[in-house]
């Protein structure tokens, strides 16, 4: 976080969207972070899920931007049990795969997919902001109120 961003938060001005960018190796995670950082998003990058869980605890990201190959090839059990990451929306990204090639149905919390080679800034920002501004609540246990049922 830069000094300007810290000052903006203390003045009550809206803070930039915080994204944690995750990939299997540092070159790609840094590339994704720089790519979205150039769009005005406050980014941090992590390599693999173990470091992502640790970094997320410090940063409390609004959204996770994760390389599709990480989501599709590595067990996400630690992510799904993490109190913060399990509730943070995930945007899958890829440099090589198109949306029709993905198999994300088995993965919880995927809010969208972005194909980086043809990505334009305005649609990307709309998707990221929509994912990050979803309601952050959980439903409690349902009361056991009696139901009125008509029998006809």
Describe the structure in your own words.
By secondary structure, this protein is an alpha/beta fold. It has helices spanning 3-10, 26-37, 48-59, 68-73, 77-81, 121-132, and strands at 18-23, 42-47, 63-67, 90-94, 110-115. The longest helix has 12 residues, at 26-37. The protein is globular, with a radius of gyration of 18 Å. It starts with a helix and ends in a 20-residue tail after the last helix.
Strand percentage lies at 15-25%
Shape: globular
Rg, Å, rounded:
18 Å
Largest sheet properties: 5 strands, parallel
Rounded average pLDDT? 78
Distance between the termini: 64 Å
Low-confidence stretches: 1-9
What string gives the helices and strands in order? Answer: HEHEHEHHEEH
* Structural category: alpha/beta
Helix proportion = 25-40%
Task: Give a quick set of tags describing it.
globular; five-stranded parallel beta sheet; single chain; 5 strands; alpha/beta; 152 residues
Please give a quick description of this structure:
The protein has 152 residues and is an alpha/beta fold. The protein has six helices and five strands, in the order αβαβαβααββα.
Topology:
Layout lengths: L2 H8 L7 E6 L2 H12 L4 E6 H12 L3 E5 H6 L3 H5 L8 E5 L15 E6 L5 H12 L20
